[in-house]
Amino acid sequence: EPGSTFKAFTVAAALEDGKVTPSTQFSLPPVLQVYDREITDSHPRGWEVRDVSGILAQSSNVGAALIGRRIGARRFDQWVRRFGFGTPTGVDLPGEEGGIVLPYEEYTGPTAANMAMGQGLAVTPMQMGAAYAAIANGGILRPPHIVGSVGGVERPVPEGKRILSEETAGSVRKMLEGVLGPGGTATGAAIEGYELGGKTGTAEKPDENGGYSKTKFVASFVGFAPAKSPRLLVAVMVDEPKGDIYGGTVAGPAFKKITSFALTNLRIGPE
């Protein structure tokens, strides 16, 4: 399950459908009751007012669920599939999985709220990379490819399809810069001299009894660099981290090391 890295798609869908703007404000209760499910943020807090940018930067579960509510369950289901979840990406590697996304007919009351904050569906790192690349490249979702050329002959880049306007993709990229800025959840992933965009994720793993484990997590970070005209995208997933569990502190530093090396090795300078 992707956890909070999925919130970027919730926000992108709401922006594209005209349900919110980056500055739309939400009043966030400490606990949001959605049918039989109580949704809270990762750390206890009182009532707060945050705009959409702040909800994404500080990774509010309550805020994501309220944004998802504005989209509506049926439309949100369409958006999940529009971003490519539930089906293989078409990458040129054997044995690709399609992840797990419930059919809309099997949704229950809290399903859409859970999915809006990245729980209740299963994804692959390849799907997450492809979907974030669509945000990074201006709104085009295309199959990832592994082989650049064969025998000196370049392989064609797979054709893609536009799923977001350039304006929406640019807005989400700008908001994702805030995740690495002051008050964001991934200040430890920042690289000096570069503007970066990205999102943390900390997902509870399903347990054998049908609920969620309180001791087993997946910590993740997906980000791109440079933020304004991305050249690189890096996805880091840590299965069942020990000790610290949060994506910003577990996966974020790995993202920083990998991306720093790649930027230097590929001679990609700051913007």
Supply the key terms:
two-stranded antiparallel ribbon, 20% strand, three-stranded antiparallel sheet, globular, 31% helix, alpha+beta, 271 residues, 9 helices
Described by strand count, sense and barrel closure, the largest sheet is: 3 strands, antiparallel
Give the class from helix and strand content and strand pairing: alpha+beta
The total beta strand count reads: 11
Give the overall silhouette: globular
Secondary structure layout plus pairing:
Blueprint: H1 7-16, E1 25-28, E2 32-34, E3 37-39, E4 48-51, H2 52-57, H3 61-71, H4 73-82, H5 111-116, H6 125-136, E5 140-141, E6 149-150, E7 153-154, E8 161-162, H7 166-177, E9 197-206, E10 212-225, E11 232-239, H8 247-250, H9 252-265
Antiparallel strand pairs: 1-4, 2-3, 5-8, 6-7, 9-10, 10-11
Provide a descriptive summary of the structure in words:
It is a single chain. The strands form five sheets. Strands 9-10-11 form a three-stranded antiparallel sheet, with helices on both faces. It has a two-stranded antiparallel ribbon with strand order 1-4. Helix content is 31%, strand content 20%. The model has no long low-confidence stretch (mean pLDDT 93). It has 271 residues and is of the alpha+beta class. The protein has helices at residues 7-16, 52-57, 61-71, 73-82, 111-116, 125-136, 166-177, 247-250, 252-265, and strands spanning 25-28, 32-34, 37-39, 48-51, 140-141, 149-150, 153-154, 161-162, 197-206, 212-225, 232-239. The radius of gyration is 18 Å and the shape is globular. The protein contains nine helices and eleven strands.
